[in-house]
Design a protein that fits this description.
- A hairpin with a 5-residue loop joins strand 12 and strand 13.
- The radius of gyration is 22 Å and the shape is globular.
- Helices cover 35% and strands 25% of the residues.
- The protein contains 9 helices and 13 strands.
- By secondary structure, the protein is of the alpha/beta class.
- Bound molecules: N,N,N-trimethyl-histidine.
- N,N,N-trimethyl-histidine binds next to strand 11.
Length: 339
């Protein structure tokens, strides 16, 4: 071997490790899914909580959905966010930026870019999600882009575990992507109340709402021509197969998504295309489906200015700023505690 003694080996400077994760979900998830599914699949309208869409594959499919031409919410929200980010983040220093449901990096990068390096070096980004892998992957991307950033990943169910979050510093909660639309009205008010209960005067809450618009536009967004949404919907059955040792055959179900005008929501269902019997071994359960019967897998509520104002009022929050695109397809609303 030809060793070249002139070469001095300089140690590679270790990257600063500014990612810490806290896991509050251990054990909880397995208990929850067993209990949830037992209840939900014995109800007269069978249903599955939509949080179970997001295993690693489901999270990837959702990111694909966000890039579909028919799925307008992501790009519309992002465009609004770009406009308001300087105002939101220009003075955001020594504070915590909490993101409930870490949803791909594009949105949070828009905010962090606008913060500028000097603010960024003093703030902390706190993604809260039930998927540890989603948090860690996203955080690694952010740390490559912003080596000065501190990230505290919190693996938790933000609908029931908000009290685990640090409260020492001023903070802004972000609840983007109209994820709030997945909740029933009462649930969303209780959730906003739980956020406001964890807010200090001066703290802010930024919420993304998908607005009511034409039925054609809404339904196209959930029935894309490439079938990604269908694949996303059916993947929840794979999640049950994996988590509960079940034997769903996803091809025995069809994707169904429609706008329920009375409920002001898109409903997604999986419809049995034959009579089916499924075993869920881990919870010692057998479920029958008649051909044409559906499992309701998601509600995605669509909002109006009035419905948002009513919710905020009922949750004890006041609306500080209101931002929409020209067409009024999506709104980003900044809320705070009542003065
Ligand atoms: C992540 C809940 C906002 O309701 O539009 C996308 C999920 N479902 N396509 C939505 C979803 C089908 C999405 N949210």
């Amino acid at each position: 071997m030809n060793m070249n003694h002139a070469v001095t080996v300089r140690p590679v400077k270790p990257k600063p490790r500014s990612l810490e994760t806290l896991n509050y979900l251990d054990g909880k998830y397995k208990n929850d899914i067993a209990k949830d599914i037992r209840e939900c699949l014995t109800a007269s309208q069978k249903h599955i909580p939509c949080k179970y869409f997001y295993d690693a594959y489901g999270s990837r499919l959702f990111e694909d959905i966000c890039r579909l031409p028919e799925y307008y919410p992501t790009c519309t929200e992002l465009a609004i966010l770009r406009e308001i980010a300087p105002e939101l983040m220009g003075t955001f220093a020594h504070k915590d930026l909490v993101e409930l449901g870490s949803g791909g990096n594009l949105k949070i990068q828009t905010l962090l870019d606008a913060a500028g390096e000097s603010n960024r070096a003093t703030l902390r980004y706190i993604p809260v999600d039930i998927s540890k892998s989603a948090i860690v992957e996203a955080a690694q991307g952010l740390l490559e882009r912003y080596p000065e950033l501190q990230v505290l990943g919190v693996v938790a169910d933000f609908t029931s575990q908000l009290d685990v979050l640090p409260t020492e510093r001023p903070l802004m909660f972000c609840f983007l992507g109209s994820t709030i639309g997945n909740m029933e009205e009462d649930e969303s008010i209780a959730f906003l109340q739980s956020i406001s209960g964890n807010m200090k005067p001066g703290d802010r809450l930024l919420v993304g709402f998908d607005m009511v618009k034409s039925k054609e536009t809404l339904e196209a967004a959930y029935n894309d021509s490439r079938g990604v949404t269908s694949e996303f919907n059916k993947n929840v059955l794979n999640v049950l197969n994996k988590e509960l040792n079940a034997n769903f055959d996803p091809s025995h179900f069809d994707h169904l998504a429609f706008f329920n005008e009375a409920g002001s929501r898109i409903e997604m269902h999986l419809m049995a295309n034959r009579d089916i019997s499924v075993k869920l071994e881990s919870i010692d359960m057998e479920v029958e489906f008649k051909r044409g019967e559906t499992i309701h897998t998601e509600n995605s509520r669509k909002f109006t200015k009035k419905s948002i104002e009513d919710m905020a009022a009922r949750a004890g929050l006041c609306i500080r700023n209101w931002h929409s695109d020209r067409d009024g397809w999506f709104s980003l609303v900044v809320m705070g505690l009542n003065p």
